[in-house]
Amino acid sequence: MARHSRRRGTLPIACALALVACQRGTEEKAPGPGQRRQPAVPPPTAGPAALRQALGIPADARYETPPEKSTAPASTRKLKTEGPVGDWLEGDVFWFRAASVRACGDVSPGGAKVIGAEVEIRAKAKLTFSPRELRLGSGGVVFQGSLDLDRQIRGCLPLLGVAWLKKDEVMRGFVLFDVPEPLPKALELHYQPTRWGGAGQVRVLVSALAAR
Questions:
Q1: Which end of the chain offers a freer environment for a tag, N or C, measured as fewer CB atoms within 10 Å?
Q2: Per-position b or e across 122-143, b if 16+ CB within 10 A of its CB
Q3: Taking a C-beta distance cutoff of 8 angstroms, is the pair 136, 142 a contact?
């Protein structure tokens, strides 16, 4: 009988000790003055909504990520080598643009109409240039750029001559073509630089000659 009374007297003491321990643990976790309660970290299996709520991110927040940088080498990219007047075209060692193609309002000594192509070339690497590397034609008939740089035709200046371009260097000017009349309704302007090992070619589609 005495042993049973001793056990029954021990039970209230154990419960009191457990209650004190719980209160002490609560006081240690409670934030002090000037401190913010840390958000509870959701378990690894929690979804995106629970993670946003735990980190204090608004549910309607949106974030834009920068596009991934292409790891493909430049040699495998598809270059734009054909387009209308005004478009930038790309070769393997150059950028090319025909700003305009126009009738220069003059007639060559042989009676042909003078056509001026205003072009802009930007070198990707060391590059030589000659007006003869540009060709203007239609229906299989092709005319090369003129090397007569003494002609001064208003509206079709300055003329481009033989030149050497360094990497990233830009040149802009006119190349003249002597085309017999009647002029074709549609023309094509081709550019292919002369280079050891060869170089790419671009083609400009000229639907109509620009007004002078």
A1: N
A2: bbeeebebbbebbbbbeeeeeb
A3: yes
Q: Which two tokens stand for residue 205?
A: 């589609």
pTM: 0.63
d(CA 48, CA 53): 9
What are the distances in angstroms from CA 60 to CA 49, 57, 71, 91, 93?
A: 10, 9, 33, 46, 48
Extents of the domains making up the chain: 79-206
Contact of 127 with 193, CB cutoff 8 Å? yes
| Fold exhibited by the domain 79-206 | Immunoglobulin-like (2.60.40)
Q: Which amino acid is at 134?
A: L
Q: Is the model's pLDDT at 58 over the cut of 70? A: no
DSSP 3-state of 52? helix
